[in-house]
Amino acid sequence: MPATFISEEQFPAGTTEDQMQEAQRLRIQAGAIRSWHEGGEQAGWTLFTEWNVLGEQ
Question: For a Cys staple, 24 with which of 6, 34, 35, 45, CB 3.0–4.6 Å?
Answer without folding.
Answer: 35
